[in-house]
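Structure tokens please, single chain.
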Amino acid sequence: MKDFAETIKKTPPDFLLMTVILSLMGIGLVTIYSSSAIYALDRFGSSTYFLIRQMLWISIGTCACIFFMTYNHQNLKKWAKPLLIISLVLLILVLVKGKVVGGARRWIRIGGIGFQPSEFTKFSLIVFVAYYCDKKRSKIDNLTKGLAPILGIIGFFCGLIFLQRDLGTPVLLSLTCITMIYIGGGSGVQLGGLIMSVFPLIAFAAWAEPYRRRRILSFLNPWEHVQGSSYQLIQSLLALGSGGLTGVGLGGSHSKLLYLPEPHTDFIFPIFAEEFGLIGTWLMIVLFGILAWSGFRIAARTTNLFSTLMASGITLMILYQTIYNIAMVTGCLPTKGLPLPFISFGGSSLVVTLSCMGILLNISRNAI
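Here you go.
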């Protein structure tokens, strides 16, 4: 611990990673204002309604990022269990007292401010899985003594999130945690067998709910439900195609004129694509690629397993969510309410993401 404290006094955080984070947040602010101004004016009477709120969340998230960037991430080991207990309380609370939005009970409101416990659970589980694999490194490839307990914990928390009528978050979170376990020494055969055995359950859960079934059918044949369940996807594809090579220019999107539903949240990428074109979208994807490369490089250069798993888990969480969001809005995967990291409007996701970036930057100060 003392050696780490001395190291971070001498070593600055990863400059490239900081630049990418600031660039993505800047793009997010510009795109949120451009995509939401007309919708916000129509619904709330102020074109800057979402912009001001996002700036507030960025301020909070930046403070959290700076804190974790200077906080010895090794101390998170002693917080692994308390964080998991807090997540458990919040997930139970949201099921009992949570606010229903769009048919799903995922939000808790305190003093007019809402947040999603599932976002905090992502952070908690990444910390706990890294702590567990580090502590049980000699037994993690043993099914009964190492692998089964941690898989049971992951399954339990993902099950609580699933009860909120949220299937996408548990799937991506469990995929992140399973990849972390594999990096930490878990058996690829055992983990692969687990994924294969759970897949039919995920398929059943997706098909059993009528609204999820409609999304799957719309994904398979979107042009059959143009004015129905495929409407949002069709509008997304139209926006993507309208951008061409260089885009229609900042503020020039037609899809945001109340055609594409809530374009500042999960479907913000098509608005960006329409205004900045193929060149702009590739530049954004390159930024996410650099972020992923930086995260995995930091993970590979760290000197202990806990740091490696924390860096890997954080990077995987961002990478998986980015891939799914872009695949979703381009019609490559079924529609699911998952925001684009740094870009989509939303407080809970942004604050947790920036907190995780602070930890990653902190790890980079010792990755020498």
